[in-house]
Specification:
- By secondary structure, the protein is α/β, with parallel strands linked by helices.
- It has a single domain, classed as TIM Barrel (Alpha-Beta Barrel), CATH 3.20.20.
- 38% of the residues lie in helices and 10% in strands.
- It has 14 helices and 8 strands.
- Helix 8 links the parallel strand 5 and strand 6.
- Helix 1 runs antiparallel to helix 14.
- The longest helix is centred in the middle third of the chain and has 16 residues.
- The radius of gyration is 19 Å and the shape is globular.
- The C terminus is likely disordered.
Length: 355
């Protein structure tokens, strides 16, 4: 199964010539008449609570791990709550690291829920087994938290190669605990979504087709269900960038992303409708810009304590070369694909899937 998944990832995007010259994302926007790229609204406040994590995944763009100590200060968490209480933003998206490891995580979730916000948590699921395994599922159900869980593949070999030995089965057990509490059902009240990242320097397969494969494999082999699958492109940042450099494939991968640029994705990419807050309070257009050390433009507030909703709603977005990752083929956002992939990609997927 692992070999089949890698095959159709490679068939969809076999790569570009080693001699491909790097492009510039800002120049690409100018060429297609989309510069400057402006925010449309702020529907979501995404908050990175810190870099500490129980795992050290090979594709992690923030290079989170057990030895990282950076965590958001209590005053910045209070600033987040103040923003949610005093602005039209009613969706809080919590990420990390493992956000559950922050000592004020429960306080933030329950307070946000009390003021009427919808809360999403990006969980690695394996965190459930750092304590009583039922504790987090019970907490999430009680607070009607939407869970977005990383699961790079539907088999142990592929997942454990990226995330660590035994992690896949921990995720399966965590999904069973969530299913028992009503998560993953068709009524959609308690939602758990899965996230696929490719196993190497390839673009994700078409989201709809891969979701069907995930649903079949996980139900038949493990008896677990979920709501949606989100496909996300591996960004050339953090540990994944390091691995590309070591293998001599960084320029090849960047060229692949550039060749797959799809202007139809620009309306749906995450930066158009959200602002990200770093663990140190820094404001950025997205979590990837945070990881790259790219703050908002100089005419915008730089820190969560100076948040200005009206100004940030009409800000110009700062772009960089990793933006080609969010705009390649079907696109990639915090909720997966944002546009239909190129027809040839779907055709290639179908051929490999049936082989």
């Amino acid at each position: 199964m692992q070999r089949n998944l890698i095959q159709f990832e490679q068939a969809l995007h076999p790569g570009c010539d080693d001699g491909a010259s790097p492009d510039n994302f800002a120049d690409r926007l100018i060429k297609i008449g989309k510069d400057p790229l402006l925010a449309k609204s702020i529907d979501v406040l995404q908050v990175n609570l810190g870099c500490r994590c129980n795992l050290a995944c090979k594709h992690c763009h923030v290079q989170a791990g057990p030895l990282r100590t950076e965590m958001m200060a209590r005053e910045d968490i209070k600033a987040v709550i103040h923003i949610l209480a005093g602005s039209p933003i009613k969706i809080l998206d919590l990420t990390g690291g493992a956000p559950e490891l922050h000592p004020d995580f429960r306080f933030l979730v329950t307070t946000a829920r009390a003021i009427g916000c919808h809360v999403m948590v990006r969980s690695n699921l394996a965190i459930f087994f750092e304590q009583d395994p039922a504790e987090w599922p019970d907490f999430y159900k009680e607070n009607v938290v939407e869970i977005i869980a990383s699961l790079p593949c539907y088999n142990a070999v592929n997942v454990d190669a990226v995330r660590g030995s035994g992690v896949f089965m921990q995720c399966i057990q965590a999904l069973k605990l969530l299913n028992e509490r009503g998560y993953g059902r068709a009524d959609g009240r308690l939602k758990v979504h899965l996230v696929h990242n490719p196993s190497g320097p390839f673009l994700p397969p078409p989201q709809e087709l891969l979701e069907a494969r995930y649903r079949k494999e996980l139900l038949e082999n493990f008896g677990v269900g979920f709501n949606c699958l989100y496909t996300m492109t591996n960004m050339p940042l953090g540990r994944f960038k390091d691995s590309l450099i070591k293998s001599g494939r960084l320029e090849v991968y960047l060229g692949e992303l550039q060749k797959a640029f799809n202007p139809a994705t620009l309306d749906g990419i995450m930066c158009r409708r959200q602002v990200s807050v770093g663990w140190d309070g820094t404001l950025a257009d997205c979590d990837f810009n945070l990881a790259a050390g790219i703050a908002l433009k100089k005419d915008c507030p730089s820190n969560v304590r100076d948040f200005d909703y009206e100004m940030l709603c009409r800000r110009q977005i700062v772009v960089s070369e990793h933006c080609f990752g969010c705009t390649a083929s079907q696109g990639s956002s915090c909720t997966g694909a944002v546009a239909g992939g190129l027809p040839a990609l779907k055709c290639a997927f179908s051929v490999v899937q049936s082989s």
